[in-house]
Specification:
single chain; mainly alpha; two-stranded antiparallel ribbon; 8% strand
Length: 99
Amino acid sequence: MIHYAFVLNFFALAQRSISSSILKLLYENGDLNLEQLDQKYALGEGFKHIQVSRLEDMEKLKWIKRDAGNIILLNSGQSTQKFVAFILKIIGLKQIGEE
């Protein structure tokens, strides 16, 4: 079985995984309510930090660009998405965020 994490930098994905970060916070701190979790996530920057961080990374990779408040998918971003979708289809997984 091939997973797209092997194609991309596995350790970067594992380090930035939202689920594993939440599990680690709960393991280290015990039960937390949503407000406490948000205060502890990303060194207190909360979950909004995820979106900002991901967009900055995608812009550096030239997958997107920002123009007058809009986020524009570039050709390299389209190619990356098509590749990920293809690999996920082969192994029968849905992409995170799909309904």
